Amino acid sequence: TTRVVARERERASLDGALPGDGFRLVTEVMVETGQAAHIVTLRLDVRRAPGDTSPGAWHLLGAQVVTVVEGLFRLDVDQQHQFAASNFVLASEDLELTLAEGTVFQVASDRGITAFVLFGRGQMRFTPRPSAEQQQVQLFSGDTQLVVPFESALVKVNPEDEASRPASTSLTSVPVDPRQLRRARDLFAEEAPRSFSLDLGDLSPDTWYLIPPQGDLLAEVHTRGRGVLTYARSVSEAEDVALFERARGRDIARYSSQSKRASIGRFYNEDELSDIEVLDYDIDATVNPDRATVDARARLHLRVRAAAMGTLSVRLAEGLTVTRVTSLELGRLTHLRVRGRDTVVVNLPYPLQRGTEVTVQFTYSGRVRTQSIDQEGLQLIDQVPIERSEGYYLLSSRSYWYPQPAAPGYAPAMLRITVPDGYACVATGEPEPGFRTAVSATGTAGRIYAFRASQPSRYLSLLIARFRAGARTTVSLTDPLEPAAPFAAGIRPGGRTSVVVEVQALAHLQGRGREMGARAADILRFYAAVMGDAPYPSLGVAVVEQNQPGGHSPAYFVMLHSSPPGASLNYAPDPASFRGVPEFVLAHELAHQWWGQALGWKNYREQWISEGFAQYFSALYAERLHGTEAFEQMLRQFRRWALDASDQGPIHLGYRLGQIKGDRQVFRALLYNKGASVLHMLRRLIGDEAFFRGFRRLYADHAFRKIGADDVRRAFEAESGRSLEPFFDRWVFESGIPRLRVTSSIEVGSVLVRLEQRQPELYDLPVTLTLVYADGRQEDVVIPVSETVTERRLPASGQVRSVRVNRDGAALAEFEE
In this predicted model, what pLDDT tens digit does every residue of 355-371 receive, in sequence order? Predict the structure, then answer.
């Protein structure tokens, strides 16, 4: 042992000792042995002889090891050895790094070689196998595979893997060049802390590392012309192969390897791959929106999913410092921070077996920035300066303001949120009546709000602003709709019959809040009639001030942006901008209470189920409110943006759409608009009755669970009685757009039409043909197209002057007439 650091973490009186004469201590001890270390958490019972005040009077009565964290290493470049490289190769899944000639330094631990530093004339070759990933690489590099020269790289490996033992003939030992060594150490110091490094707080100021797990490989490659690219093979991840740019925060490729795909399948559920399942949350948080600070205690009741779990990993914002982790069953637990990531690792005293339930409590505090909704909001071209603007503080799905699994599943929750005096809070859960006045340790007054989420929620959110409470109304969901929609069947037996709607708005936006509340009640009734139920007993409608149009919809409440009075704003053309439908944002966000909240998605690739479905439901509401022309105008806009952006990838890429170009409009054009268009084409193929029964079946079978495209397909197949696999394969998992040549021959009493698909792949799509009569009448006929050539003779009720193709914009296709 070369160094020991001991830190007392807790102190309690020892049973049987006089006050001050005996203590039970919880102590963390870091023991260094050269360049390796481990951390031991000890429970120590100490007592001093009665009446003896000398330092030597204290005696150790007992010691118990609580937890041990092994395998910590202080790593650096080997300064004694340098190698000349000749066709030196490091390889992993779909990656090959070749150093034709150059210099190699090694980084060793007592377990073996764990990293290589490369300099010289190298080539990086990345050849993803999935076609959708090849498309993303082509958007990035111009080719379906990435071949790029590199000048330097740091590669981390597990000492037991083949990658750590390249052919000995490719390396020749040479004398150490001090300049090259300094360069290697600088590169290691720059890149190494980005992965597998830990923040040990007051135990050590140094950077300590974990060895990559067996099978993992991580390469930070300094390319020529493409900047620094990071390749990661992470066997514990569902999508275990990734290529990305750290500096710009964008994925180039991310997918499951062949072996992983064979193990988890195409439609993996992230919950089922998680080590833990949260059964219940209980959170007390004091939040100061002016300082963006959170001081909280979060209790998680967990069930172990893994066969055996020795460490517990949770996501928590990097700006939050954990001061204590305890368990009712396991006692005080050691925790470590992963540098550069929103991750805390908790060491367990022994492996917990599958099915074990434990309660773990985290105490933490720090700063968390308010979450923006840039990806969902519209873009501004210019604006007139505004004299007054009141902000808000939002903590939601991307804030990681409370400890949660990497893939949070559904769980009920109890939230108690303390805010400064003058502020009000809206959060996930049904608000408990009234609030209590609280006084902090510094004497600052505040208010405590309580929210109980009895219905399970995917994630927990809170919104704080200087709200003034508005109307609180009970909305009946069983009253007949006026005007009635033919596909709105009403509340099913056992469904929720009413929802309490409460409006919160800033003082100068009270009028806007009343309008939003009334409209929200109407939209809720409409959606509940279509779906047969409403997911939550209450809905908060929070109106905040923001130039950027948009909103956010966690479970139990919606946040809506309203521009400040007197603002003059000019919006860029956008996939989600519908000037003739001012209710669109509210209708879209409220639809998320069903699509995205009550029905989540299995993994990020299924996000179209949230956005595409919400977009389509907002169009259905626009049709009810403004008529068929408004609905068809939205369909045409869906089609226009979808056609323009489809070459950016399939809708099954989720949040990654638009990342390569750095254009968030691509995300909305495809997930929002193309997703909605795909649903409308499905409706045309299977008919209204089967289509809307499919929605109800999805909700009845999967409420408060996560679903994927396979679940959606099976629900509509069950209601329509036909196979829809080819339809979903083309429209969800591929990005192509069909090309159709349409010819028509007008005859007496009929029109002969011929539709020919002009691409090798066949698509299922419905095409609207409109017969335009000489007297001005128009008659729409929907023709399902699934073969290379489809011919139909359409009866005519008069003299036909012309035939229009896809008048309503419902078919996503390019047409030649």
Answer: 999 999 999 999 999 99
